[in-house]
């Protein structure tokens, strides 16, 4: 990957860093979550650099941000489309993109990763970025299921590492989990809580991330299960619709992570899930998963 080729060496002391006011944000991973977080951060006046592996991915992310912003301003600026257009333009100016994060990282208050749900890849990324980021920079992960302390162990700054778990779709979902490990400093938690509030979100503090509960099919069709959960339990989406919405590759990473708990039925392997992922049917983003979608 391009950005592994440039190293800015710095030396660090592990002295406590006081409260950081987060203004400059580098988001690594411009998929559905990274793009959504970039949109919300830029909409609330933060300066954002969105990093991914190719320019094509970043172009798609910027297009997605713009179209999501159009949906947002339709409501917030209804009756004043010109002001809506101005708002979109200003927000887009707050976002720059890069396949090479070193320059942005030099002024970054927060590096938030929203890359693939894989421990080794997240650790490699944080270990690499740790060598070039300023001392005050906070590292956060948007992981759905991986232990933050393990990701943080790849850095020399576990006191400045935490989980910042957004929900999908980020522009609409108010909740953000701020996940502190036993090493996360109170100043880091405080900075992240303030950042989350500045985004207009509602933070909750967690000591650790609970694994999500999974349902598996067996005695009913996926349609019946989804309908039952929506009409009977009041959820906006059933588990199969939600899995398609999240991405079946991500769901599989989460399920596979549960292999450490072989007796826990929650993580029982699903042949259907494995088959769909092997066929590249990853849900809404590929237009087919448990269900089929139109473009
Ligand atoms: C075998 C395996 C089984 C395993 C099952 C396990 C499942 C659980 C796995 C969890 C994994 C963890 C994942 C992660 O870590 C945590 C999460 O993020 S969980 C996901 C949480 N999110 C939800 O629960 C979403 C729930 N859904 C909704 O709220 C709605 O369905 C929706 C997504 C908002 C879509 O609403 P709809 O009415 O269906 O569709 P519309 O398109 O009409 O939209 C309504 C309204 O919203 C606006 N809008 C939608 N998306 C966006 C966007 N991206 N940006 C801006 N605006 C958006 C849209 O314009 C509409 O506005 P309106 O027209 O009403 O003004
Ligand atoms: N999808 C959801 O509903 C959801 C909700 C909350 C949290 N999460 C978590 O957020 C993270 C991202 O999920 P997503 O759904 O946005 O995934 P996604 O597949 O949509 O996007 C991931 C992006 O990361 C990029 N990427 C992968 N490795 C990279 C690297 N080393 N450097 C730079 N970019 C890299 C990919 O090119 C891709 O664009 C995961 O950890 C996931 O568990 C997902």
Automatic annotation (TrEMBL):
GO annotation, cellular component aspect: mitochondrial matrix
Amino acids binding NAD(+): 29-34, 52, 117, 122, 144, 168, 285
Domain 3-hydroxyacyl-CoA dehydrogenase C-terminal: 213-293
Subcellular location: Mitochondrion matrix
Main location: mitochondrion
Site (Important for catalytic activity): residue numbering on this chain: 165
Pathway assigned to this chain's UniProt record: Lipid metabolism; fatty acid beta-oxidation
Catalytic reaction annotation: a (3S)-3-hydroxyacyl-CoA + NAD(+) = a 3-oxoacyl-CoA + NADH + H(+)
Binding site for CoA: 68, 75, 144
This protein's UniProt keywords: Fatty acid metabolism, Lipid metabolism, Mitochondrion, NAD, Oxidoreductase
Cross-referenced Pfam families: 3HCDH, 3HCDH_N
Domain named 3-hydroxyacyl-CoA dehydrogenase NAD binding: residues: 24-207
GO biological process entries: fatty acid beta-oxidation
SUPFAM superfamilies (alphabetical): 6-phosphogluconate dehydrogenase C-terminal domain-like, NAD(P)-binding Rossmann-fold domains
Entry keyword NAD: yes
Keyword Ribonucleoprotein: no
GO MF terms held by the record: (3S)-3-hydroxyacyl-CoA dehydrogenase (NAD+) activity; NAD+ binding
Entries under PANTHER family matching the protein: HYDROXYACYL-COENZYME A DEHYDROGENASE, MITOCHONDRIAL, PTHR43561
UniProt family annotation: Belongs to the 3-hydroxyacyl-CoA dehydrogenase family.
Identification of the protein by name: Hydroxyacyl-CoA dehydrogenase
Organism: Xiphophorus maculatus (Southern platyfish)
Taxonomic placement: Eukaryota, Metazoa, Chordata, Craniata, Vertebrata
């Amino acid at each position: 990957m391009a950005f592994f080729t440039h190293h800015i060496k710095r030396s660090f002391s592990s002295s406590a860093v006081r409260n950081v006011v987060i203004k400059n944000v580098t988001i690594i991973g411009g998929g559905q979550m990274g793009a959504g977080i970039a949109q919300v951060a830029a909409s609330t006046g933060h300066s954002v650099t969105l990093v991914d592996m190719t320019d094509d991915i970043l172009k798609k992310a910027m297009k997605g941000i713009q179209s999501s912003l159009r949906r947002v301003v339709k409501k917030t600026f209804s009756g004043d489309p010109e002001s809506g257009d101005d708002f979109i333009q200003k927000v887009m100016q707050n976002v720059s993109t890069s396949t090479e994060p070193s320059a942005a990282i030099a002024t970054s208050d927060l590096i938030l990763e929203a890359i693939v749900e894989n421990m080794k890849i997240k650790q490699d990324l944080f270990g690499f970025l740790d060598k070039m980021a300023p001392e005050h920079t906070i590292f956060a992960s948007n992981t759905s299921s991986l232990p933050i302390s393990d990701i943080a162990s790849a850095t020399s700054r576990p006191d400045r590492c935490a989980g910042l778990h957004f929900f999908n779709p980020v522009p609409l979902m108010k909740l953000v989990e701020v996940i502190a490990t036993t090493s996360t400093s109170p100043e880091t938690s405080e900075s992240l809580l303030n950042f989350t509030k500045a985004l207009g979100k509602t933070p909750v503090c967690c000591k650790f991330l609970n694994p999500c509960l999974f349902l598996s099919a067996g005695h009913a069709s996926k349609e019946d299960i989804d309908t039952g959960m929506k009409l009977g339990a009041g959820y906006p989406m059933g588990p199969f619709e939600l899995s398609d919405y999240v991405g079946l590759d991500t769901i599989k990473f989460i399920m596979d992570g549960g292999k450490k708990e072989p007796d826990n039925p929650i993580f029982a392997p699903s042949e259907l899930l494995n088959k769909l992922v092997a066929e590249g049917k990853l849900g809404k983003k590929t237009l087919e998963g448990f269900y089929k979608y139109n473009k």
